[in-house]
Amino acid sequence: MTTTRELGLPSISPQQGLPDEVEIWEVAPRDGLQAEKTLLNVDTKVELIERLARAGAPVIEVGSFVRADRVPQMADSAEVFQRVKDLSPRTPVLVPNMRGYELALAAGATDIAVFLSVTESFSEANLGAPRERMEPIVEAVVERAAIDGVRVRGYLSMVFGDPWEGHVDTAEVVRLATAMRSWGIADLSLGDTIGVATPGQVKQTLRALVGAGIPISSLALHMHDTYGMALANVYAGLEEGVRIFDAAAAGVGGCPFANSATGNLATDDLVWMLTGLGIQTGIDPDALTETSAWLSQALGKPTTSRVARSLTR
Ligand code: MG
Questions:
Q1: Residue 146: CB partners within 8 Å, gap ≥ 6?
Q2: Which of 92, 128, 186, 191 fits a 20 to 30 Å CA distance from 221?
Q3: Rounded Cα–Cα distance for residues 85 and 145 (Å)
Q4: Ligand 1 mean position, distance from CA 54 (Å)
């Protein structure tokens, strides 16, 4: 496997109004792998996280304390977390409820993510309970985390469209985001779980949230590339002032409960675009490309990243 060096980086053309730097949340080891059928062992997951850390990823979501029978790929998250928690990047873990929280805390987690669905259908399908039951469960976790000094990010799923309900009402996004902020969650990630968002919709949703008093600095975008819109949506987010973007090396992942979903936005593609815009990420593109190729090989499937495909022979 060789990498073409002549075109290894894009030309750099900074644009007025865009930031000098953004933060990428690398989600391949958790959101990415949990949707992959090929189970990786603990050593391979630890190596993935170490490689991403060496590549310069500032935040790496490393695992999930969910039920092993529902998400087999995450059954060994406690062990993985133990082995990577002292790396220099932040290593948050996902917890669905108080049981998951207790397990994460016992493993030494100080940085967690919780999640809720904007739509009723996905709440039932993914969380196994209606929203009105899930919201107090997550609120209780957030209250406990505040007492324990644990940092919390909140994920909102199905922000821009739902496979069963279709259109998603922006007012519902604003309601849930406002509620999660009121519980004490500082940072929210807006998930386009099935990848149907378009740039104007992203702008309109962000403006509605900001209009409701939610600071743009607290919002991240989590885009999926199902319809090829992920980077356009990121650019729309950049123009609105978003500075945090989720992505997965090699574009691994998808959504285990939504048939139409393909992978996460590939970190490789995101870094290429941001590099071309002169926006710093702290990530070394060469190390990322190598990691991405290594991960694709470990999973035995081709990368979904157009950049990775172009750079790697
Ligand atoms: Mg995702």
A1: 152, 184
A2: 128
A3: 18
A4: 22
CB 98 within 8 A of CB 114: no
Which residues, in sequence order, are CB contacts of 285 under 8 Å at separation 6+?
8, 9, 268, 271, 272, 275
Flag whether the pTM goes above 0.85. Answer: yes
The CATH code belonging to domain 4-311 is: 3.20.20.70
What residue ranges do the domains of the chain occupy? 4-311
Burial (CB count <10 Å: 0-12, 13-18, 19+), residue 182: exposed
Taking the centre of ligand 1 as the mean of its atom positions, its distance from the CA of residue 31, in whole angstroms, is 5
So which residues are the catalytic ones? 255
Total Cβ atoms within 10 A of residue 42: 14
156-176 confidence digits (pLDDT tens) = 999 999 989 999 999 999 999
Tens digits of per-residue pLDDT, 240-270? 999 999 999 999 987 656 565 578 999 999 9
State phi, psi for 124 to the nearest 5 degrees: -65, -45
Q: Which secondary structure element, helix H or strand E, spans residue 114, and what is its range?
A: strand 111-117
Q: Is 5 helix (H, G, I), strand (E, B) or coil?
A: coil
